[in-house]
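Input structure tokens:
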């Protein structure tokens, strides 16, 4: 354990900001006396595509192609360093409390191997280093029985891996041919956090006992021996160390000091201290050199105008300094790059690059709301079912979520409270509760865990109880200071509140979630996660019943451990949509105060039977591609893809499919054969360009997460892989475009009539026909026109769907446009309403979602679905509005990887879509047609991609409707952006 004096400096400032302290949290649940194997029960986890907690360590390869990051969120991640694109997520086994947090990561110089470690056991005493293949993602081996691992470093030649350890455990070194231990020294006074090899194989380490230690190769050339050990001036807790490129100097950053020291690479004697003028707070604990040694970089918790900069000195640290602002949280590691710049990782969490000129070239930040210092700006409705929070610290950039309306609003002002109440902090003599270790009631200390700070307070309306949010726990006390309950939490409780009726406790946590608890016993009822994009949100119960906005199903999923020595699996909740997508359960859980009761009531209302199969029984298959490896070069259109399939649930695999750039590969282009008892091979025909091949396996419950490999086309001649170049355009055959457009304004039941849905369909057809001869060699429309009004019968629409499925080839594009009414039945199943719809006979007269989905998922080419529909029960003629329905399930299902459809929806499920005489259209179609006709060419390149069209339509509809309607576009991760129109 670190002493409290060190907790309050350096690292602890960052840890405090994100509430994920390493040293302090008492492990909950498993202990050293219990089974060493982690639980195999599925665990709900957030997945945003970026870390949700402090990024402690980073690593890069020699060629600077890849970056790896490790985090307290219990994942390690692989990124493409040039673009910041996420390539892979590693999920070691995890458990309660600290178990599974990764404090260290390193990438071998050749970029082939990733090592990660931290607190990976229940007791924190017998931890593993996990060794992964960067190419396949497989866990290759574990190095077991270690103390807490704080830092990992490969030698420049990749032959050795050093593990810098916690406590008094010092350092261990492993040779990488088999990862056997070749050296260990534990004569250290306390925790160590830094270590670096030079090109000669020497190792320097830092320790919070104040000493640096320098090791060199022993005479046998395998082990190491201590050369010198020296206490360094400048600070008492040296954190990071970095050899200069020529090994003559070593830079040292301190946790407890604003100074940086440069010492001799020969004997660790002090050479000089770079100019630290103006560094009057925090520290510069992270250090690194440029590749030529002419520039020294440092960063840490030192802040200048509210931001943590990287300071860099010329002349190898002896010259003048400059700064580049980086983040709002501390900089935890800096690594040099070949181009003279550096890559950094921060506690925000974020990572990025600074180029050789000192410019920030890349910054990838967290996708979570930042609830720090929100406190009195965390507002709650009287019944606790609606909240107002801030996406940014101090409650700035407010958002409001209504559980009953299923609506997230961000177009509000800070003072628009409208009956929402802040937490009550008066009425009881609770003092010293804001960011202290010793909150008090009536002058007497309230008990917290060791090293735990109080962060937030809410007093019950009747002043009989109060809620205290802290670093590691949420606690309810009565007015006599008796603790009524205490629960472990996922991150710092930055803000808390209590509903006006005293039934519900609500807290906003550092992991980006807001959660509701029963005041009676502290039992969690509901969690809510608003993505930082201010559009997507997902809410879920502890058992996994959920509601989600379009595209938000990927934000949470089930983590399933596979034992102590194997990587875990992760399944997004959308894989279980048929069973667990239950907006009706989510809507009822806070009213009933009991998840099981809410489920029973919702099932009775909908006439649904109680689900018998558990999550564990419904797990989909897991696919692993063996070859080719990711980012392989290919020069033939016939690719042999070898893979294996695991079945965690034991359910047999019923089907295997391949996708090319997110679209299904037809049976004619797909041949599968066995290679061995557990390996299969697919022969896939690709096009002469860069592409991504994915494999999906299915069982009777659901489909697997796609296993994908990127292929780089290298032709035996001119390379054809640049879709925007004229050379490429002339070298490939232009696609055909097939369009099915349906618009119903006049219904057989005149009570359902709309005004412009038919014109919307005609105008969409006109816009796409005008693209003939430009991007498309031909544009063909079903029946040569839009199906409108009386023409749009169920039979005719089904014929149109059958036509577009048969006509579209693998190089073509298909677009389906529906405007009119839609309706959900009592089981939330969607139907499009043709001219002759009878809401009492939906199966006979409505176009079922299954028919739409089956066609769109079977189309061989690229598929786009444009949908502007509404609830058929509303009288739409009033106020020119089309009423809402639950379109979210349609969008999420179609845009899932196994279906591969790009979906544009006119509005969210909680909104109506508007049509007005002044537009002579619906707002969605007016914006869509404007964008296709050229307005969406945001980059002035003459071509409009589907993502550019989405940006234009979203802003234009918002402008037309004054923020009352928000269109949505969702695309599968496996489908790359591509042009759909040209500016004429």
């Amino acid at each position: 354990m670190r002493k409290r004096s060190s907790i309050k400096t350096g690292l602890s400032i960052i840890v405090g900001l994100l509430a994920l302290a390493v040293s302090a949290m008492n492990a909950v649940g498993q202990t050293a006396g219990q089974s060493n194997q982690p639980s195999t029960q599925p665990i709900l986890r957030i997945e945003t595509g970026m870390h949700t907690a402090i990024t402690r360590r980073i690593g890069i390869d020699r060629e600077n192609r890849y970056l790896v990051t490790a985090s307290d969120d219990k994942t390690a991640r692989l990124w493409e360093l040039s673009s910041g694109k996420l390539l892979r997520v590693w999920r070691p086994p995890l458990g309660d409390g600290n178990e599974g947090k990764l404090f260290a990561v390193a990438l071998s110089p050749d970029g082939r191997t990733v090592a990660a470690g931290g607190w990976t056991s229940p007791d924190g005493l017998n931890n593993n280093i996990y060794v992964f293949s960067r190419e396949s993602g497989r866990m290759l081996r574990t190095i077991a029985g270690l103390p807490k691992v704080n830092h990992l470093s490969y030698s420049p030649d990749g032959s050795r891996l050093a593990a810098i350890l916690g406590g008094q455990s010092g350092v261990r070194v492993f040779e990488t041919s088999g990862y056997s231990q070749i050296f260990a020294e534990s004569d250290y006074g306390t925790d160590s956090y830094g270590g670096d090899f030079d090109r000669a194989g020497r190792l320097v380490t830092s320790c919070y006992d104040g000493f640096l230690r320098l090791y060199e190769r022993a005479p046998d050339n395998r082990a190491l021996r201590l050369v010198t050990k020296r206490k360094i001036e400048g600070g008492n807790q040296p954190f990071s160390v970095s050899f200069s490129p020529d090994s003559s100097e070593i830079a040292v950053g301190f946790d407890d000091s604003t100074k940086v020291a440069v010492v001799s690479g020969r004997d660790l004697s002090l050479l000089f201290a770079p100019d630290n003028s103006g560094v009057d707070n925090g520290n510069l604990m992270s250090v690194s050199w440029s590749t030529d040694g002419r520039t020294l970089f440092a960063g840490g918790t030192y802040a200048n105008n509210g931001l943590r900069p990287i300071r860099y000195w010329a002349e190898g640290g002896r010259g003048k300094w400059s700064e580049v602002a980086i983040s709002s949280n501390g900089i935890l590691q800096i690594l040099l790059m070949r181009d003279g710049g550096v890559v950094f990782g921060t506690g925000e969490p974020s990572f990025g690059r600074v180029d050789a000129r000192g410019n920030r070239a890349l910054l990838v930040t967290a996708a979570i709301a930042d609830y720090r210092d929100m406190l009195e700006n965390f507002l709650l409705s009287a019944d606790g079912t609606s909240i107002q929070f801030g996406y940014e610290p101090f409650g700035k950039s407010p958002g409001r979520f209504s559980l009953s309306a299923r609506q997230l609003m961000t177009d509000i002002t800070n003072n628009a409270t409208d009956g929402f109440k802040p937490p009550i902090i008066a009425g009881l003599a609770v003092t010293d509760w804001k960011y202290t270790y010793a909150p008090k009631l009536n002058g007497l200390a309230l008990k917290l865990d060791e090293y735990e700070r109080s962060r937030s307070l809410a007093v019950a309306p009747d002043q009989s109880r109060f809620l205290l949010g802290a670093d590691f726990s949420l606690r309810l006390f009565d007015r006599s200071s008796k603790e009524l309950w205490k629960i472990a939490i996922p991150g710092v409780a930055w803000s808390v509140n209590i509903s006006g009726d005293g039934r519900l406790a609500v807290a906003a946590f550092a992991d980006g979630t807001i959660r509701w608890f029963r005041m009676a016993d502290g039992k969690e009822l509901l969690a809510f996660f608003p993505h930082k994009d201010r559009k997507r949100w997902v809410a879920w119960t502890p058992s996994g019943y959920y509601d989600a906005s379009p595209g938000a199903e990927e934000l949470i999923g089930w983590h399933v451990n596979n034992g102590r020595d194997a990587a875990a699996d992760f399944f997004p909740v959308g894989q279980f949509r048929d069973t667990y997508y239950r907006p009706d359960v989510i809507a009822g859980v806070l009213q009933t105060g009991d998840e099981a009761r809410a489920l029973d009531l919702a099932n009775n209302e909908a006439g649904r039977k109680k689900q018998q199969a558990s999550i564990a029984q419904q797990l989909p298959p897991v696919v692993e591609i063996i070859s080719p490896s990711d980012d392989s070069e290919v020069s033939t259109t016939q690719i042999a893809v070898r893979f294996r399939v695991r079945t965690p649930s034991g359910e047999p695999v019923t089907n295997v499919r391949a996708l090319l750039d997110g679209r299904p590969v037809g049976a004619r282009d797909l041949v599968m054969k066995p290679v061995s008892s557990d390996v299969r091979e697919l022969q896939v025909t690709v096009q002469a360009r860069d592409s991504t091949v994915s494999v999906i396996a299915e069982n009777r419950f659901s489909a697997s997460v796609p296993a994908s490999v990127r292929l780089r086309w290298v032709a035996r001649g001119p390379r054809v892989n640049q879709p925007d170049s004229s050379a490429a355009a002339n070298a490939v055959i232009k696609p055909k475009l097939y369009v099915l457009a349906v618009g119903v304004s006049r219904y057989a039941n005149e009570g359902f009539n709309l005004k412009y849905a038919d014109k919307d369909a005609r105008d969409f057809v006109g816009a796409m026909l005008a693209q003939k001869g430009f991007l498309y060699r031909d544009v063909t429309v079903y029946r040569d026109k839009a199906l409108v009004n009386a023409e749009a019968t169920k039979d005719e629409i089904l014929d149109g769907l059958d036509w577009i499925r048969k006509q579209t080839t693998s190089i073509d594009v298909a677009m389906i446009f529906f405007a009119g009414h839609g309706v959900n039945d009592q089981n939330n199943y969607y139907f499009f309403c043709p001219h002759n719809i009878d809401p009492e006979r939906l199966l006979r007269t409505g176009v079922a979602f299954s028919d739409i989905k089956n066609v769109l998922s079977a189309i061989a080419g690229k598929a786009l679905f444009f949908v502007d529909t509404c609830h058929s029960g509303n009288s739409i003629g009033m106020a020119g509005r089309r009423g809402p329905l639950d379109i979210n399930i349609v969008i999420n299902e179609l845009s899932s990887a196994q279906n591969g459809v790009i979906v544009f929806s006119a509005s969210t499920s909680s909104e109506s879509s508007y049509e007005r005489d002044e537009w002579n259209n619906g707002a969605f179609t007016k914006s869509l047609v404007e964008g296709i006709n050229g307005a969406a060419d945001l980059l002035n390149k003459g071509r409009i991609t589907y993502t550019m069209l989405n940006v234009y339509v979203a802003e234009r509809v918002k402008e037309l409707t004054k923020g009352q309607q928000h269109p949505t576009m969702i695309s599968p991760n496996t489908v790359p952006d591509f042009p759909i129109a040209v500016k004429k």
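Residues 1-34, 718-731, 871-884 have pLDDT under 50 and may be disordered. The chain has four domains: 4-28+53-365, 375-550, 619-713, 735-917.
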